[in-house]
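[scheduler] slot 2 assigned
[scheduler] job type: sequence-to-structure, two independent chains
[scheduler] chain ordering preserved from manifest
[runner] begin chain α
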Amino acid sequence: MSLKFTVGDLTIHRIIEQETTFLPALEMLPGLTPELLAENRAWMQKAGALDDQDVLILCFQSYVVKTPHHTILIDSCIGNDKPRPQRPKWNMKTDDTYARGLAAAGISVGDIDYVMCTHLHVDHVGWNTRLDNGRWVPTFPKARYVFDKTEFDYWTETHAKTPVPAFGDSVLPVVEAKQAEIVRSDYEIGDHTRILPTPGHTPGHAAFTFGRGKDDAVFSGDLMHSPLQTHYPELSVKFDVDQAQAAATRRSFLERYCDTDTLCCTAHFPSPSVGKIRRKGSGFSCEAI
């Protein structure tokens, strides 16, 4: 299984925290019918995206991108020591899987120049912080953490009404440490890193594109969770804040990168998680490279 990719002048490392069963397909994708699932069961199982009980298998991972100028971590996964009672596999974790993944890629926490979050859901911000003597402190001491302003404002408002644990322990401590950059979609890092607004899953969800002068790689975040959604872009997950907008955004994104050389790096597709978007009937596929 490949954990390292090179494209253009970029080197991309996958840092896997968990690759595991998540939710039944019919529960996670409200628009999915038993008939459509039956039609797609064989290839989904072969792709490692579905188990024999029709439960979706998801990968939870970060990507580290080395450009000629910066080392950038995208989506900081689940994290340790965090109370997540709704998700037993994430709750109060204490394993060293993530640390070992970084070390295997030859990366230390001090090497990261930027942490970029596609959105601020619990499994994309977890390693933003670590527990240090009872306090949450930024895991990456030298990094600037990039949060989309629409996204940050949405969660600030939500958290003010009802506390959102992940926002409280994995986002606000970064702001308090003065390591946050709250940015709009015209924000760029050097001549390699840009923001592509992809709303729907959350109001300020963003994909990130990398490459000098062209998109050599794109990181799609939670624009899609399962390869089934490339074949049927209209299938939104139950966690999408605006399911219709998410579906429209997904189709537009897949059209944008269809039949190009852009490497699409997905957040949750099973390994290898990375591929090129190709047309398939009235939908698309993400063909592993």
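[runner] end chain α
[runner] begin chain β
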Amino acid sequence: MNAVTVPRTVFLDVDGTLVTYDNVLPDSAVRAIKEARTAGHRVYVCTGRSRAEIPETMWAIGLDGMIGGNGAYVEDGGEVLLHQHLSAAQCEQAVSWLRRRGLEPYLEANSGLYASSIFRDTARSAIRAYATGKGTTGASSMEVDDAFPGMVFTDELVRDDVNKISFLLNSPEADLAAARRKFPDLVVGSWGGSGHEPLFGDVSCAGVSKRHAVDVLLAHRGAARRDAVAFGDAAVDIEMLEHCGTGVAMGNGSREVKDAADLVTDDVEADGLAKAFRRLGLNG
């Protein structure tokens, strides 16, 4: 591809795109991002993670900001542009219903992750299945604390700053359908393991999406959508890949993600991010 001469706005999914499924940040990705920013491009993570789940090592790359909670939160240069969070009443209603149905939840907020003490036991098999599906080293012995370091275990699961609530699934199709009937004013999604099948559900505010968050950030910057580049590997990234001027699928992404992309690069473990940056001329 020809090198670009106009500044680009780059949006990077995190898990399976910027970092490996073992949560390793490749040196090649760090170099590529730093070179792109030196060349005048702006780089943001665009992730299902909330702000508390972005480690300092990731910020140390020199990121310009982030989209978190799959679009619930937008930050540019330290300025908060958008924060769509559940009210305390919505949080209480969702947590109560999920627990009555046996679908143990955890809360995802910018301040941290919150779950009851029984989540360690009830979520163990789902965490191991998720890690196994992603090829994570040591998946068969992984514990909740390994997957979610710093998670706060508490009986107080009603907050007014929650970006989304993730929850365990027993019968995915039936549980998700029931949640959508129960909460028609909220967005009910899912995420999973091998083949990207559902292992967890999630609940967030209506209107939350990576696509909408991208538009909010671009409008704030006065940047054109045609000059935006999105990277991802999962179904939740498809809207963003199709919406931005250029969509890049990681080699480890699902078939539907690759079909939606303009460019398919190598796996995250094979320096796929850095290789795509070079192909797109983002390194100057």
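[runner] end chain β
[qc] chain β: The chain is about 30% helix and 25% strand.
[scheduler] slot 2 released
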